[in-house]
């Protein structure tokens, strides 16, 4: 999957990564090989390689680390 | 006189705590939204309380309670735009129970009227309805510039504005005029009593 944007969130404490075309993920049913810390229909929180990741149904992610691209590729590799 | 002051890690709550700290013993209480916010927000709350402890010798260490499981329940089962109102109602509900357990008789919150879209008089009233103790809001009539000026004076502005992840579960369009009856209907979709008990177990 190609990235559409990678930009700092407004607080500068995480990165917002969005796919080129929005996805329509069913987060309640989504199976991923990651440590899921919370699951709701509107947001799934995961911990991947020690990094906290929030995944939205559109495929948008909030990634709290300095190099979000690698994490984003891992997630999209599983869900897209 | 003893109260429980809700500390968020932002600019306002350390100021509201400071303004009342000479008049009452205030126990600072923080709700962690993890995994819907970062641990860095908690670090800000801890740091701001340490600053306040340098100014007031009657402020104990920060008490931290888990709140992420409550947000997960609301986001899973309730009307999306009400998430923030449900979140704050849960906080004051749990804070009231905690306050009673430590002999406190009121809550302190850092709301100021109209500062953000969700801090409308209507929403404040709906939130307060969930509290079983009086809620004191020392900042209610102050504007942001006044609050920032005091935060700079007491030395909490720097820690309160350090980088920290925002809450990731805030809806795009949070309710600005929540209707109590509708909120109560939404709360019927979750087991409020069980969530309160589970949260207090996190002490």
Verbal overview:
The complex is a heterodimer of chains A (80) and B (203). Chain A has 80 residues and is α+β, with helices and mostly antiparallel strands. Chain A has one helix at 68-79, and strands at 3-8, 15-19, 35-39, 44-48, 51-55, 61-63. Chain A contains 1 helix and 6 strands, in the order ββββββα. In chain A, strands 1-2-6-5-4-3 form a 6-stranded antiparallel beta sheet, with helices on one face. The mean pLDDT of chain A is 88. By secondary structure, chain B is an alpha/beta fold. Chain B has one domain: HUPs (Rossmann fold), CATH 3.40.50. Helix content of chain B is 47%, strand content 11%. Chain B is built from 9 helices and 5 strands, in the order E-H-E-H-E-H-H-E-H-E-H-H-H-H. Chain B has helices at residues 12-20, 39-55, 68-77, 83-101, 121-128, 144-154, 157-160, 180-187, 192-201, and strands at residues 2-6, 25-32, 63-66, 106-108, 135-136. Chain B has a 5-stranded parallel beta sheet with strand order 3-2-1-4-5, sandwiched between helices. In chain B, helix 1 packs across helix 6 and helix 3 packs antiparallel against helix 4. Chain B is globular. The two termini of chain B are 23 Å apart. The A-B interface holds A 9-14, 37-43, 45, 47, 52, 54, 62, 64 and B 34-36, 38, 40, 68-69, 71-72, 75-76, 80, 163-166, 168-169, 171.
* Category from helices, strands and their pairing of chain B: alpha/beta
| H/I helix tally of chain A | 1
Shape of chain A: globular
**Average pLDDT of chain B, to the nearest integer?**
94
Alpha-beta content class of chain A: alpha+beta
The major pleated sheet of chain B works out as: 5 strands, parallel
Q: Count the E strands of chain A.
A: 6
The CA-CA distance between the termini of chain B, in Å, is 23 Å
Mean pLDDT across all amino acids of chain A:
88
The major pleated sheet of chain A works out as:
6 strands, antiparallel
* Portion of residues within helices of chain A: 10-25%
Please state the oligomeric state of the protein chains shown.
heterodimer
Into which percent range does the helicity of residues of chain B fall? 40-55%
How much is the radius of gyration of chain B in Å? 16 Å
Given this structure, which CATH class of chain B is correct? Answer: Alpha Beta
- Specify which chain pair forms the largest interface: A-B, 19 and 19 residues
Trace the largest sheet of chain B across and list its strands: 3-2-1-4-5
> Approximately how much beta-strand content do the residues of chain B carry?
5-15%
Name given to the CATH homologous superfamily of chain B? HUPs
């Amino acid at each position: 999957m190609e990235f559409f944007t990678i930009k700092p969130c407004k607080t500068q404490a995480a990165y917002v990564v969005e796919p080129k075309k929005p996805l329509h993920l069913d987060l309640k049913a989504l199976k991923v090989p990651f440590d899921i810390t919370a699951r709701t229909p509107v947001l799934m929180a995961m911990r991947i390689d020690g990094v906290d990741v929030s995944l939205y149904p559109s495929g948008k992610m909030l990634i709290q680390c300095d190099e979000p691209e690698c994490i984003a590729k891992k997630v999209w590799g599983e869900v897209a | 006189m003893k109260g429980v002051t809700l500390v968020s890690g932002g600019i306002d709550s350390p100021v509201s705590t400071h303004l009342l700290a000479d008049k009452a013993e205030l126990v600072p209480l923080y709700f962690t939204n993890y995994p819907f916010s970062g641990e860095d927000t908690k670090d800000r709350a801890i740091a701001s309380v340490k600053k306040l402890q340098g100014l007031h010798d009657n402020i104990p260490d920060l008490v931290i309670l888990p709140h992420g499981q409550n947000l997960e329940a609301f986001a899973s089962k309730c009307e999306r735009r009400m998430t923030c109102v449900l979140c704050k109602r849960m906080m004051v509900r749990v804070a009231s129970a905690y306050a009673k357990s430590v002999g406190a008789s009121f809550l302190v919150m850092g709301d100021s009227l109209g500062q953000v879209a969700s801090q409308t008089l209507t929403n404040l009233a709906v939130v307060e309805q969930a509290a079983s103790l009086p809620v004191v809001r020392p900042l209610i009539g102050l504007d942001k510039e006044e609050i920032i000026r005091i935060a700079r004076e007491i030395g909490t502005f720097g820690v309160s504005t350090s980088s920290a992840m925002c809450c990731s579960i805030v809806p795009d369009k949070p309710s600005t005029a929540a209707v109590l009856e509708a909120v109560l209907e939404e709360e019927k979709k979750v087991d409020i009593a069980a969530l309160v008990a589970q949260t207090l177990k996190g002490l």
